């Protein structure tokens, strides 16, 4: 059953002109980072953070930075997992699909940097990157070590604007430069490979639906059904680390 589905998925991808990947927290579960929702989810345990997180940041950035440095609530666990995580076979499989020229672009909702660490080049991090900082005024991005936290909130070396972590908070608009790349790639796409996302959070959750509306193909991989499953041409029940390497083998066999 799963083997046939994987082979069909490989054929559908090879018959498509522009395959785009969309990943979520589920693809990094096997790297030791908990998902947000469903069984074992961080929000399932701690509750969803307030939807106006960004407005609270703008109201008192100093207080926000103090919370971060104390690693309050779920932050402690999440930061520890992010700092210690390494890519696993699912991340490498997507990097290999890019190298084979089958995957044209990868949109990730994850802030864990694991796709880049696995060698993926064409990556849009729609929710930012945990290991980076960003100026909310000029949108310049910095590696963590480039910004001193001696005085908080840290200020932008270029424009003296306030610096925040690059991760997009609830209530924060997606930085335009990243959003434009995502919209361009989804606009080009006739096949979405969705892995490890509950497809609950917009605008990312809208991308597969857009491709489907435009007559494209939708392939999903994950252990549980999601908001997308009913729309999918193929929906494979399984863990990313098990299914994606098999998908690469099937693609390579057919190439
Ligand atoms: N392999 C593949 N998928 C998995 C695995 C696994 N090993 N384990 C769990 N999953 C699936 C779950 O079944 C679920 O459908 O991954 C999905 C994770 O969903 P969420 O936790 O909702 O994560 P995500 O879709 O990325 O959330 C979107 O919400 O909280 C915000 O900013 C946060 O980027 C995040 C966004």
- Computed Rg: 19 Å
Strand order of the largest sheet: 3-2-1-7-8-9
Helix content: 25-40%
Strand coverage percent: 15-25%
Order of helices and strands: HEHHHHHEHEEEEHEHEEH
Rounded average pLDDT = 96
End-to-end separation:
22 Å
Instruction: Give the cofactors and ligands.
Output: adenosine-5-diphosphoribose
Main beta sheet: 6 strands, parallel
Number of helical stretches of at least 4 residues:
10
**Large-scale geometry:** globular
| Poorly predicted tracts of residues | none
Class derived from helix and strand content: alpha/beta
Number of E-state strands: 9
Describe what this molecule looks like in 3D:
The chain is of the alpha/beta class. 38% of the residues lie in helices and 15% in strands. The chain is built from ten helices and nine strands. It has helices spanning 2-15, 42-46, 53-59, 61-70, 74-84, 89-99, 114-117, 176-188, 206-213, 240-254; strands spanning 19-23, 103-108, 123-125, 132-135, 141-143, 163-165, 191-195, 217-222, 234-237. The strands form two sheets. Strands 3-2-1-7-8-9 form a six-stranded parallel β-sheet, sandwiched between helices. A three-stranded antiparallel β-sheet has the order 5-4-6, with no helix packed on it. Helix 9 (206-213) links the parallel strand 7 and strand 8. Helix 6 packs parallel to helix 10. It is globular and about 55 Å long. The two termini are 22 Å apart. 40% of the residues are buried. The model has no long low-confidence stretch (mean pLDDT 96). The structure holds adenosine-5-diphosphoribose. Residues 24-27, 29-30, 35-38, 41, 109, 127, 196-198, 200-201, 222-224, 226, 239-240 line the site of adenosine-5-diphosphoribose (APR).
